[in-house]
Amino acid sequence: MLAVNGSEAYIAETPFLPLNVNGAGDMAAALFFVHWLRTGAIREALELTVAAVFGVLEATARAGAREMLLVEAQEAIANPEQRFLARRVR
Known about the structure:
Helix content is about 50%, strand content about 10%. It has one domain (about 1-90). Helix 1 (about 25-40) runs antiparallel to helix 2. The chain has helices at about 25-40, 40-65, 75-80; strands at about 1-5, 10, 85-90. The model has no long low-confidence stretch (mean pLDDT about 95). The protein is globular, with a radius of gyration of 13 Å. The longest helix is centred in the middle third of the chain and has 22 residues, at about 40-65. With about 90 residues, it is mainly alpha-helical.
């Protein structure tokens, strides 16, 4: 996932998950906006967003579900188990 503002650009990568679901982009956009408003830091907002999205998608893949398990994985949104560090690309 890539986040860019007027002076910075950061990218964060996760392991591949064999999954195809709808709504992950909407979830990422909403989470990023909340984290960015709360922290004011693009890098931190990206890292928190990527961790939460990955947590939900990982839980969904593990369960073999066809739709994101948002309710079942709500703890992964609030307190993700893994953190993915963003690196500056600009």
